Amino acid sequence: MMIFLVGVFVGILLMLVPVVLGARRNRISRLHLVESMNAISEGRHDVRMYAYRNRGGQGVIFHAFNHMAEHVEQTFAGLSQERDILRHILQNMTTGVIYLRSDGQVQMVNDAAARLFRRPVEQWQDRDHWTVFRNYNLGAAIDHALLFGTDWAEEHVIREGLTVLIRLVPISSSARTQNRNDHAHDVLMLVTDVSEWRRLEHMRSEFVANVSHELKTPIAAIRGFAETLLDEDEGDTEGTGDAGNPMRRKFLRTIYDESLRMGNLVQDLLELSKLEATDGRVDPVSVDLQTVVDRAFERLRHTASNRGVDFRLASAPRVNVWADPDMLLQVFLNLLSNAIHYSSEGSTVTVSWDVLIDRVKVHVRDNGIGIPKESLGRVFERFYRVHKDRSRASGGTGLGLAIVKHIVAAHGGEVGVDSVEGEGSDFWFTLSRLDTNLAGVSFPLH
């Protein structure tokens, strides 16, 4: 009996030994796996597990771990390479780049931004943007972009002789703040030095103004002499000498007409240079829109009548706008003249406006020849003519719509055109409105 019990006990021990050894191997394998994974998390991506260290059936786990480790190592190597490339690009850009976190603190700044603001990189990191820029308008724009994710761009004079264009690009930071319920935004600030561009623009504007001013006198003299000779021809009823020569009269009329066109071109160039020189500074007052339209109709009624074109003011509420009256009159004169020249006999040019919540949208519509679709985006460029022969024949200078765009932009408005070729055009612009004369008017939401 004793021998039987000893045999049973030995059998049980022999059965438990493999179980104990297997459990020990599993524990060691788990510890080794944990240590290897901790090494990976610490950045040691070259760690691998090999089966000879722990004999047993752990080969599949080791292989899977090694495959994962190789993938992680390759991914991190690729990311590190991209990071180095981006860092190299950022540090060698001429455009300043500043990255602000959603809490308003500076996270990254490149060397170009440090040079433009004359502030070492060490004084940017983890500092609130208000302590770095100390500009109320810029700080308010940054806060607005951080809170609402709105784009913003504006030129700023940092110091004498240095003008920069600052653009704010909001970037959603939801991926970095998944535990937050609000929609936070980071902001990428791009700072471009435009001082040289502005200097060249100023030089060009001065050159155009000076040349135009110098041309006024000789053009006026040519026009005066041609007009005098034409008057002599008309006064020579007997046709003596060369006065009655039809060819002479034709040449004189051509000289006179071209001198008028050149005079108008010089006047428009001077007007455009004046607008650029003032840098969009205007002195707006409260202006009754209908009064200005009536003045423009009266000025151009004779020209319109000669071409068989009628003016019509659509039924619209009386409204006051915030504008310079002389500049606003110039806008209407240019748009109406343009509509007259491109309308056929018997056409009607209609002026109307829509009263919106905080602005007025004015329309000058004609049913003339219209504008091709491919030209709609260029009609406000200087000297751009959709129909070149027709424009020259009408005495146009190619600057009227460019002047309109400058004036409207100086008033903080927008300008545009909608047109269908062969059906007519609708030139429109917007101005800030005042509440005068608007009792009981409902405002459309567009």
TrEMBL record:
<dbReference type="Pfam" id="PF00512">
    <property type="entry name" value="HisKA"/>
</dbReference>
<keyword id="KW-0597">Phosphoprotein</keyword>
<feature type="domain" description="HAMP">
    <location>
        <begin position="32"/>
        <end position="77"/>
    </location>
</feature>
<dbReference type="InterPro" id="IPR036890">
    <property type="entry name" value="HATPase_C_sf"/>
</dbReference>
<keyword id="KW-1003">Cell membrane</keyword>
<dbReference type="InterPro" id="IPR050351">
    <property type="entry name" value="BphY/WalK/GraS-like"/>
</dbReference>
<dbReference type="InterPro" id="IPR003594">
    <property type="entry name" value="HATPase_dom"/>
</dbReference>
<dbReference type="InterPro" id="IPR003660">
    <property type="entry name" value="HAMP_dom"/>
</dbReference>
<keyword id="KW-0808">Transferase</keyword>
<dbReference type="InterPro" id="IPR004358">
    <property type="entry name" value="Sig_transdc_His_kin-like_C"/>
</dbReference>
<dbReference type="InterPro" id="IPR005467">
    <property type="entry name" value="His_kinase_dom"/>
</dbReference>
<keyword id="KW-0547">Nucleotide-binding</keyword>
<dbReference type="InterPro" id="IPR035965">
    <property type="entry name" value="PAS-like_dom_sf"/>
</dbReference>
<dbReference type="GO" id="GO:0005524">
    <property type="term" value="F:ATP binding"/>
</dbReference>
<dbReference type="InterPro" id="IPR000014">
    <property type="entry name" value="PAS"/>
</dbReference>
<dbReference type="InterPro" id="IPR003661">
    <property type="entry name" value="HisK_dim/P_dom"/>
</dbReference>
<keyword id="KW-0418">Kinase</keyword>
<keyword id="KW-0902">Two-component regulatory system</keyword>
<dbReference type="Pfam" id="PF00989">
    <property type="entry name" value="PAS"/>
</dbReference>
<dbReference type="InterPro" id="IPR013767">
    <property type="entry name" value="PAS_fold"/>
</dbReference>
<feature type="domain" description="Histidine kinase">
    <location>
        <begin position="210"/>
        <end position="435"/>
    </location>
</feature>
<protein>
    <recommendedName>
        <fullName>histidine kinase</fullName>
        <ecNumber>2.7.13.3</ecNumber>
    </recommendedName>
</protein>
<dbReference type="InterPro" id="IPR036097">
    <property type="entry name" value="HisK_dim/P_sf"/>
</dbReference>
<keyword id="KW-0472">Membrane</keyword>
<dbReference type="Pfam" id="PF02518">
    <property type="entry name" value="HATPase_c"/>
</dbReference>
<keyword id="KW-0067">ATP-binding</keyword>
